[in-house]
Amino acid sequence: MNYFDYRDGRLFAEEIPVSEIVQRIGTPVYIYSARTLRRHFRIIRQAFEGTDTLICYAMKALSNLSILKLFSDLGAGFDIVSAGELMRCLKAGADPEKIVFSGVGKTDHEIETALTADILMINVESRPELYRISEVARRLRRDARVSLRVNPDLDPGTHPHISTGHRDSKFGIPLSQVREYYAEARSLPNLVLAGLSTHIGSQITDTSPFVEAGRKVAGIVRDLRADGIALKYLDLGGGLGIPYQEEPSDPAKYASALLGPLRELGVKIIIEPGRVLVGNAGIMVTRVLYVKETDVKRFVVVDGAMNDLIRPVLYEAYHEIRPVEERGHSALETADVVGPVCESGDFFARERQLPPVEAGELLAIMSAGAYGFVMASNYNSRPRAPEIVVDGSRFHVVRERENFDDLVRGESIVSLREGPDA
Ligand SMILES: *Cc1c(COP(=O)(O)O)cnc(C)c1O
After folding, report:
1. Is the C-beta atom of 40 inside 6 A of ligand 1?
2. For the chain, what are the domain ranges?
3. Domain 4-31+279-408 carries which CATH code?
């Protein structure tokens, strides 16, 4: 469910026609719906009602400061993967006691920053990282709350680039070594063994991988108890999918699948939803520049590109594409929707059935809230698009469109002419 709907053939973001925003802001542009974001957060919270669960929004999905503030105000914590994300969510008012730090390659600086901010816990992904955190904590004369991230060795059946819980993946600690790890961690100075974590992948539509993951981590928690290690937190990661084209399981079913094997453990649950909170709450609007017919194909060339939204080529992702102004019913035509960037991978859709489209028209790329703007780059020296948040009948520019100065910030021109010593 989201608040991007048609009224008399015009696409609205909540109470505002999308075309009105575009008139003021231009294209390409990201538009988020605050009402949708709040709704999604409440639905997830309700799904876990009656349990001791902390929702840590996986902010890598969409990390604009205003979005972080919105979630923080609703009581969310955050799952971060870098010092940059830590600074961002603290700036937006996050409570450090609700922040967990994930990722396979934390630097000393990042560990220091996390310990100094006194976040809830660091999710550890390897033995050397465990030693490093202990060392840094000792140097800072602090205790580091850590949680070991276990790789439960299962295949959630999603695209390989968003699947993280398989034994071949770089993430987590092998199931078979987890007990040894905890025994070892217990002997290291300045570590507090706070929890156990897992995260099996993203855009998971079926509940069975969650059940399996839950069963496996529950087994570990019991084994560890037998070893005299009582963990306070069980962090189950994120991963619930959204309906780009597929039918994901609803949040209530997801919650009961996840919690089923864990109910009797009496541990505090952490979940790290990303995509499910923000994916459908955002669209990217782009203008048609040209319609180009070749011998074999029709190309709709738009002013947005892979540098603005890379998911189609990176994950073979499907995004619904809709006209911002509907023009009555005509037969659908097959077209590739492509951007101006000099790469064949620069497309939003291939062989897509679309209503007839003309130059100048606006198209909305739906469900672009998650892993959209955050992956934008300046490739081809294209300024990054602005981000807009709509709230009822008002909209706010929460990130301006970049300009040429932004593009060359930090660069300098040195003279590299061949000199006499050449
Ligand atoms: C990316 C990530 C998430 C969020 O995944 P979604 O599929 O967006 O819900 C949660 N936890 C960790 C550790 C992640 O890397």
Report:
1. no
2. 4-31+279-408, 103-271
3. 2.40.37.10
